[in-house]
Amino acid sequence: MPDIFVEENLVLRMQKDIQRALQKPVEERRWGMVIDLR
Description:
This protein is mainly alpha-helical. It has one helix spanning 3-22. It is flat, with a radius of gyration of 13 Å. The chain starts with a helix and ends in a 16-residue tail after the last helix.
């Protein structure tokens, strides 16, 4: 699969994760950041 499709899929996945997280009440939201140094 070309890299452009892989990157696009990652962006779409992140957008879906954010939309799902924002549906939770503010008190239940937890955020974290992971940095991949590869």
